[in-house]
Amino acid sequence: MHLKKALSLFVLFTALLYTPAPAATLQIPLRQLAPVQDYRLRGSMDTYTFTLPIPERWQVKKASLHFAYVNSSALIPLNSRLVFTFNGQPLAQVRLNPDTPQGEVLVPIPGSLFKTGYNPCSFSVSQHYTIEECEDPFSPELWTWLKLNDAHFEFEVEPLPAPARVSAINDFLFDPRNIFDTRANLVLPDLKPNHLQAAALVASGISLRYEYRVPEVALADALSPGVDNILIALRRDLPAVLPQPLQLEEGPVIALRPLPERKTGPNGTAEWVQNPANVLVVVTGKDEAELLMAAQAFASLSYPLPGSPTTRISNFTLPEIQARMIQRGLLPDRTYSFASLGSATSEFRGMSAPRLNLDLRLASDLYFSPNKFASVILHMAYGAMMRSDSVLNIRLNGKFVSGVRLDNPRGDYFRDYRVDIPLAAFKPGANQLSFEAVLTPLHTDKCTLIQTENLRLTIFNDSKVMLPDVPHWIKMPQIGVFFQDAFPMARWPDMREAAVAVTETSRAAAGAALNLVALGAQKVGYPPFGLSWFLGPETPQLPKDLIVAGSMPTLPKELLDRAPIAGIDPLALSLPQLERPTPRPEAPTRFWGQAGEAAPDSPRNLADLRAASPAQGGFTGKLGPGRAALMQCRHPAAPDRPVLMLTADTAAELLAGSRALWEPAVQAASDGDLVLVHLQPPEATAKASLVGPSYFVGNPGRIPGAQNFINTHPLLSLAALLALLLLLGLVIYKLVKRRRKRRLDQSHA
Questions:
Q1: Strand, coil or helix: 536
Q2: CA angle 80-85-91, nearest 5°?
Q3: Would you say domain 2-20+162-312 falls under CATH 3.40.630?
């Protein structure tokens, strides 16, 4: 009891010594805060809404929104207004003047209006082109263009003290609403494979809690001031890192404390104080088994973390999973209600009702047969007194796929209304199914009062999406599918059939591997509980998918010889011009159908790349300064298993390359088996190429498999067909000859 009291007094004293960090001013583009884009407000009245996330950790003192707009020159300034509303409060009203159709607006936002969570924001317009005559409310002259791609917020924020509870890991430290600072320092005193496995679980737990935001995770051997620190170490190694001992109970433990920082006192001496704005999270155990269990509990979002400063991990069991299970992903041969897809019963009202969007995420290795259909079963009702051209348009990924006529003037109710969508219209990964109601009043004369309260359409949440049974079959190599759902490393979401090899003993290389694994975990939505780790220059001889991270001089020769970069000179290639090689005119592509794609001719592809290189000397062993490479090839010990390699000339460039892989532009440009990443600021860029031969992974079934064989082996297929016809002709000839002989024998008898 006396020890606890003394410890409390010490914490209070050091907290008083520490001066909180002053408020910081940050400028953040609006597109990084919310999924916004340039938008045109149409008609006499229209609204555009979005939500602004604010984490619990940051107190907003004040803020301002900077945006620009362009309005129609036909508007009358007396009756035309643009209004910005924040949390229900109108903060700015702009007169839309045809004499100055372009404008920039600065909207101050008091800090008192901000609340933790998602803050609704909206742009609303009232637009008119006449005050003396009747007006068409849907005239094409009524518009205002919001330039939101270039809009930005300025915040003055102050960090709040972190609560002294382990549960703050979920709702305070790693909040997906955090838009200000996502830095974390992972302290790993001992670079051993089992310790790296624990660190990878912790890094994955951070990335999973941030959901879609990018964590800035660094790997170090000591505490770093000004950021949250997570210490991953055995209990006996804690004193070498911590300035003061921690009183922890036995067993696997997760503890949270204020971050100790060294500060110069009034007398010029250095002393340790506690920074309440940042925390120290300790993940520890007496041996590697306990350390791993603590890291597993940290990574698991379902494990209940208590409201106390320390928790002992007990009764932790790994959850049951199934293959190809991805976060918010849909499995084939299943039926999903709109409610299970996150959609409540939705009502469309008026002539400019917002769309209903459903996010459908599919595995990247599904074979989308052109002969199969997905079905949407709609339960819906619409009002009376609508014009017969009213319609419910259905779009998939922004493209029109079907429509439902709303032509009954008395209204109607549909139960089990079926709409079939070709499966070929879907794509691997994220898909968006949109429902857009075009509701038109029965009377729309220029000077007639238009009644719109009857324009209503309801889609009930027991409507369904039915997916057919489709095989898992994909053409490889495709580095881009790793950025969709970590395929093929996450065929099992816990990556039990994958391993990581760090080819050098450096924290930069290990940090690069952690970044790659955490990225994959965020994409699949599950911690890598089954991932194996290896440290050293030897290639693991296991029948597993392999992730390799290391600088170029440390890569195993057997992997480097198989890498797609082995046949080219990357120093002689201009990165912006590196494109996928195309077949020569004298050797046309051998595509005989649409079911499968012929495997590219590897020597021809290499020749094309070498032709683009003035050196033509082959691989020189260097990528060049400011470059990293992400490559994919087949495992030398298991040809049916892929190897994903991340490399650069130095370990520092390797780490920078792993962080660049989080950038959406880099992920979008990644494909084929070779991705060169240019690390020069302000933003990383990437170019992809397909150098080696292609192959297929999975089981397509008999018919798609036969189609692919015919497409990829036309001459052999033709020879087999001719042989079959010859054999069939021979059989028919023998049968006819035998029948003729039988008839002759009967006639002579």
A1: coil
A2: 85
A3: no
CA distance 6 to 244: 14
SS3 content of the chain, % helix, strand, coil (to 5): 25, 35, 40
Domain ranges of the chain: 2-20+162-312, 24-159, 329-466, 473-698, 713-748
> Measured on CA atoms in the order 742, 747, 748, 749, is the torsion positive or negative?
positive
Integer CA distances (angstroms), 82 to 43, 103, 120, 145, 741, in order: 13, 11, 17, 11, 97
Ranking 186-200, 586-600, 686-700 by mean pLDDT, the lowest is 586-600
> Tell me: the pLDDT tens digits for 248-274?
889 999 999 999 887 776 776 777 788
Is domain 24-159 given the CATH code 2.60.120.260 in the classification? yes
Instruction: Record the tokens describing residue 683, joined without a space.
Output: 């933003």
CA 442 vs. chain centroid, Å, equals 44
Could you tell me the CATH superfamily of domain 329-466? Galactose-binding domain-like (2.60.120.260)
Residue bearing tokens 């609006």: 30
Contact at 8 Å (CB) between 593 and 711?
A: yes
Task: Scan for tokens 């149409």, then name that residue.
Answer: 42
Q: State the Cα–Cα distance between residues 520 and 319, nearest whole angstrom.
A: 19
Collapsed DSSP state (helix, strand, coil) of residue 472: strand
**First and final C-alpha spacing in the chain:** 121
Strand order in the sheet with 270-285: 216-220, 183-187, 228-234, 270-285, 253-264, 310-312
The 10s digit of each residue's pLDDT in 34-91 is: 888 899 999 888 899 999 999 999 999 999 999 999 999 999 988 899 999 999 999 9
* Cα 200 from Cα 513, distance rounded (Å): 8
One-letter amino acid at 242 equals: L
CA distance 699 to 697: 7
Q: What angle do CA 366, 370, 373 make, to 5 degrees?
A: 80
Give the C-alpha separation, 708 to 702, whole Å: 10
